[in-house]
Amino acid sequence: MPAELHRAQDHAVIAFHDLVPRAGAIAANQYLIIHGHEAALVDPGGDLLFAVLLNQVLDFIRTDQLRYVLATHQDPDVAGSIARWFMSAPITVVVSRLWGRFLQHSVPGYQVDSGEIRYQLLPDEGSRIRFADGYAIEAVPAHFLHSPGNFHFYDPISQILFCGDIGASNSAQAFGPVADFDAHVPTMRAFHQRYMASRIAGQVWAERVRRKDIRMLAPQHGPYFEGADVSRLIEWVARERCGVDLLQPADGAADAAP
Ligand SMILES: [Fe+2]
Ligand SMILES: [Fe+2]
Predict the structure, then answer these.
(1) N or C, which end of the chain is more exposed by having fewer CB within 10 Å?
(2) Which among 52, 53, 55, 33 has a CA at the least distance from the CA of 44?
(3) Which numbered ligand comes closest to the C-alpha of 145?
(4) Whole-model pTM?
(5) Which bound ligand lies closest to the C-alpha atom of 75?
(6) 23 to 7, 48, 132, 189, 238: CA distances (angstroms)
(7) How far is the centre of ligand 1, averaged over its atoms, from the C-alpha of 165 (Å)?
(8) pLDDT of 196-255, one tens digit each?
(9) Residue 238 sits in a domain of what CATH number?
(10) Does some domain include residue 239?
């Protein structure tokens, strides 16, 4: 069942959280932002999800209303289905400038109208994704968390920051607000330690997002963070050693030295 994270007269945010049909595939959340007569889909995933997600999206909008696919980064569970979305809706794919040329490898050459004209490539400092009435979603830099070209997307109306793989967990808790932050940390730790590049990346991100009015942090995997847990997660990310912070010579680093 989709979950409504925000609903106002002209603006809604819907979470799809239970669509991954294969037990061995990582569970993932997809988010739909509807503003007026236009919409954006955040991290729609790959071919595994396309048909079932499209079917659900059609309960809320028509395909000709879908203006954007927002990709936090380039992973298969994020952006693997862009060829299908290009064929199904008048979308622009929004992604880091680092990944535009790479994502084109997901799209068959015969889709002649799916070239670079259908991408909004984000500069490292971020940008705005504009809708017809002036509303804009903000692309917030989150580089190396975990991809070298990585963005989060901030909806200033709902004050939700869609934070990709930051805050991802393998929690058994049903989708909803995290029930107990301290108990939740072990379900995030192994993922962040391996997939996030370093604590410096986390500190730079924390410094940036502390200044924003965030009501909810909505990750791509697992339950979301709201209320006091928003700053708890930000400060945890700023503190947690991960990635190359934990790399040991036994992991192969010494062998790679000249
Ligand atoms: Fe990822
Ligand atoms: Fe992911």
Answers:
(1) C
(2) 53
(3) 1
(4) 0.95
(5) 1
(6) 32, 12, 40, 22, 32
(7) 6
(8) 999 999 999 999 999 999 999 999 999 999 999 999 999 999 999 999 999 998 876 555
(9) 3.60.15.10
(10) yes
